[in-house]
Amino acid sequence: MTFELAVGLRYVRARRRNRTGGGFISFISFVSMAGIALGVAALIVVLSVMNGFQEELRARILGVASHVQIQAFQGQLTDWPRYVDIATKRKDVVAAAPFVQEQAMFSLDSAVRGSVVRGIEPALEDKVADFAKHMKVGKLEDLRPGEFGVVLGIELARALGVQYGDKVTLIAPQGLVTPAAVLPRVKQFKVVGVFEAGMYEYDVGLALIHLQDAQTLYRLDGVSGVRLKLTDLFDARRVAMELGSVIPAEAYASDWTQSHANFFRAVQIEKRVMSIILSLIVAVAAFNIVSALVMAVQDKRADIAILRTLGASPRSVMSIFVIQGALMGLIGLGIGVTLGVLLAQNIDVVVPFIERTFGIQFLAKDVYYISDLPSKLEWNDVSFVVIVAFVLTLVATLYPSWRASRINPAEALRYE
Q1: DSSP string, 143-187
Q2: Rounded distance between C-alpha atoms, residue 92 and residue 237, angstroms
Q3: % helix, strand, coil for the chain, step of 5
Q4: d(CA 319, CA 16)
Q5: Whole-angstrom distance between the N-terminal and C-terminal Cα of the chain?
Q6: Strand partners, 403
């Protein structure tokens, strides 16, 4: 143990010479450590909750959307098995499924709602999306060619007032030209299922029918595109770019980061802003150490002077107070990291306890689609918080330590 470290540790543990001032200095030191602990814990918990929301949002979107889509620039893909063959030859593509996507209106009695109609092959669609997990009533397998069954999003079903087994009228925008006028195509569909994806966009505006029924209704020879599922969804952009260079020129490949970029960009921006705001809280707590060290230097002027007369250099004196301030910061940092990690890993227990105790609800189920606070602890975020807090603590110790190193022994011992 070096001389500076030994004295710095002793100053952290020792009582002050001036009892009145010493008590106040100890209080300031305690407040500084508590502020750092609370700031670090809050930063870790908030970042973990933001990660949890991002993960939950991604899971809900990709439970309905695809990782990568291959679509035609104009019209439809008539030779879609060729594109499926090209895509499935890749090791990073798990499954592929064709789809037809068009606009339509559903009506029942006086209720009318617009929707996106997606024609699917139930057996293949189940491999690229998680509709089976989101089914509230019925099964995807109940969509059979020629029977004109439909699976509605739960909010769309509520808006229309339909239940399982009811029949709804689908009105396609492509019309029939007659001598009198252009008439829309109308077809009755039987409700064979209801799903709840947890995303309002899909629950209120998506209906599933069989691929062949969609081709018949919209008079298509091919499909709108092919949906792909990958082994790693984070490779979607790279896979889409590579597929775009090998598929025929009349088609293009896009990935989920393009089609839903706004959702994830918004969450990422919020995460960064919250990180900056909470880092400022940590900074304020860290710079409270300046006050504690300035008062400690004033209290230890005689000790500093004696150390200087015994041969201690200004650099050694400065190191002593840097070590003292750093130890105060490390204590607060250790408590904050421990508290933050425990809260982040047990937020699913802590939040319901607070809600039951105080009779409140942070995310009401009738308002928010994600009614629970999700949390995902990322150790990279913890490392970032630790580094930032420790650097701020070290910076806060520099000025008081420099002041201590500039004390003149003769002036300090004049009235001792």
Answers
A1: --TTS-EEEEEHHHHHHHT--TT-EEEEEEEEEEE-SS-EEEEEE
A2: 12
A3: 55, 20, 25
A4: 19
A5: 30
A6: none
Q: Indicate the pairing of strand 206-210 with strand 182-195.
A: unpaired
Specify whether the CB–CB gap between 104 and 117 falls below 8 A. yes
Nearest to 119 by CA among 12, 230, 217: 217
What is the mean pLDDT for each group of 10 consecutive residues in the chain (416 residues)?
Answer: 71 54 63 85 88 79 82 86 90 92 90 92 87 86 92 92 92 69 79 87 90 90 91 86 88 84 75 80 77 78 81 84 85 92 89 82 64 82 88 86 81 66
Instruction: Read off the DSSP letter of residue 211.
Output: H
Distance CA 253, CA 227 (A): 10
Distance CA 318, CA 387 (A): 22
Task: Please identify which residue in the block is written with the tokens 């921006």.
Answer: 269
Residue 336's identity, in one-letter code, is G
Q: How far is CA 228 from CA 125, 209, 272, 348, in A?
A: 10, 19, 31, 34
* Contact (Cβ atoms closer than 8 angstroms) between residue 131 and residue 62: no
Number of H helices and E strands in the chain, helices first, is 16, 10
Say what angle helices 261-299 and 301-309 make with each other, to 10 degrees.
Answer: 70
Q: Which of 64, 242, 214 is nearest to 150 (CA)?
A: 214
CA angle 104, 107, 113 (to 5 degrees): 60
